[in-house]
Amino acid sequence: AKEVGRNNSQWYRPEMNARLRDRLRRQKQLGEALARDQFRVVYQPQVDARTRNILGVEALLRWDHPADGPISPMTFIPLAEETGLIVPIGEWVLRSACRQGVRWRRAGLPPVRISVNVSARQFLHDGWAQTVASALEDSGFDARHLELELTESLIMQDLDRCVQTMKRLQDMGVRFSIDDFGTGYSSLSALKHLPIARLKIDKSFIRELPQREDDRAIVMAVISMSRRLNLNVIAEGVETQAQVDFLCENGCDEIQGYYFSRPLTPAEIGAMLAVQPTV
Ligand code: C2E
Ligand code: CA
Ligand code: CA
Ligand code: CA
């Protein structure tokens, strides 16, 4: 270790120690955040591209740190995944979302699908299917309104196990979408055998629409492929009218993004659902 140290003196820079200390401190705080009630879930509408009705919402986790303020999931989710804390935290998100769905229903609001993000660590964990079953049962939330968002890399990590778990959940009525579609390395021949209801076109392909020619081609190809395969398709990260127009013209089913709405509190979603014309 001494020799490595001599040759790699950057490991001994004081700011490196500070960074490591920071990380360990964050890790410890993350471990306590559940018990301290510092998490909340916000919901971003997913709307029908034509009618603009809210068909679903995506549950997105927020961590309100008492000293440092809100911390982005882009930083703490990877930390939760590395430490395994994503298992209890993810279960909490799932249970919160199911309970919230029931609350909206009991308030007399039209039913919406709720999409919950699932990490590989969670999905491949023994007992995940059981956790979902128990969250549904305890809350009374209709399984047919629950959608789990999986990434291509999660699926390719352990395809056999994934298929098994997906089938069990599908039997309960739960549906699946592929998140960030197009950014991973899944083979279409593998995806073909999975019970997938929707593809979510990653926001990196939407950002420079409609100017960028290669993104236009990719998005049009994904939409037409989805239609032929009878999959529903949604675009995420939609921010402009020009993007909405392009997506509508090309037959995208649903849109999600700041153009329509940022992620909102449960009360704000309730207010939107309450004024939504029934179809
Ligand atoms: P994601 O699943 O791809 O979620 C979409 C992200 O895009 C969200 O960021 C959302 O707020 C953001 N977004 C929505 N509309 C727009 C838009 O028009 N433009 C742009 N530029 N961004 C938009 P957020 O909430 O910061 O979450 C980041 C990531 O953290 C998520 O990406 C997801 O991978 C992860 N994450 C969030 N909540 C959970 C959770 O409960 N469990 C797990 N496993 N991961 C989560
Ligand atoms: Ca997602
Ligand atoms: Ca995504
Ligand atoms: Ca993502």
UniProtKB/TrEMBL annotation:
Signal peptide: none annotated. Residues 23-277 form the EAL domain. This is GGDEF-domain containing protein. It comes from Trinickia symbiotica. The chain holds residues 500 to 778 of 785 of the full protein.
